[in-house]
Write the structure tokens for this entry.
Amino acid sequence: MEKLTLILTCAGCGKRAGFNQNKLLEKINGTPVVKKAFDAFYNLGVFSEFIVTTSKTDFDEFNRILDGKATIVIGGKTRAESVKNALHVATGDIVLIHDGARPFVTKKIILDCIESVKKYGSGITAIDSVNTISKIDNDGFITETVGKNNVIEIQTPQGFYLNDIKRAYAFDENSDFPDESSVYLKHIGKPHYVIGDKCNIKLTYKNDFTTPSVGLCQNYEFRSGVGFDCHKLVNNRPLILGGVKIEHDKGLLGHSDADALLHAITDAILSACALRDIGYYFPDTDAKFKDANSADLLKTALDLVNKQGFKIKTVSAVIMAERPKLKPYIDLMKENIANILSITPNDVGISATTLEGLGFVGREEGICASATAVICKI
Ligand code: MG
């Protein structure tokens, strides 16, 4: 069984990204880029050695983030020099070299790359170029059209037998190769390429961290939930909906303040997380919740959602009430709900409808609300 080594190149400081720290320490969905890239290989369970190149400045931070799982090697002035330093300590039979700034590498890419090394002696991840590739001079002119047929754009990982790539680098002690495929091509032979993925981008500029295309690559996890509630209308109770006190001759009956709208929204956000419902967390048999302010219950539910690693994106609700007219209160409700959920009123949709005199709502015996919520991974 051949032993696999990963070399993750992280020695550059990522100046072009313009952050005030190494771009690899920036977080995507709460995880530093370097850890996301590292985990893609580590979690596969097929590698037995991990080497990460870094600058002296980031040595301690990388060691902390990677939890001592990797041998951390100080890089050189160039990528080639850093890789050579890492190859010097590598002991595997096959080595995959990967950019720390490509955190979206997939399991398929990694396994294909390893297979290619076993079959062809090398595996270079690449994608077909959809753009015409040309060479340029320093004066702003195109000097040669390479074309787009039979042209590929090279990514990483790039895999080799350790001895081959060490031998290739040994020929050129001081050359600055852009990547391993070029040094292999020069000294060993034609490297074999494997189809990568356009999502496997190299985070280079600040924009790369925020553009929608990267958003898709980040596997943003969106989930939705639904909630419904209904309370009886009785005399001598205040009518509260969406946390707003509404002028009316009747109010909703309940153990808490009976705010059916907030209850429906509470159930929607809990349900989106696959958590239990409002009655489970705030039972009406518990004296603690007697006359409870439903805004507090919603806030507590939000804490539960946040603890699961999600935040609210939008909520949308419909109130079913025959009377009174709710139009004057809708904006206030939106503002209230947005404040509780740490979103903006633009993220809260509320509509109100009568039931045309039909059923218990139509007979003004009760008011219902139903809500949906969209949440996403923090
Ligand atoms: Mg209720």
Notes: The chain has a mean pLDDT of 92.
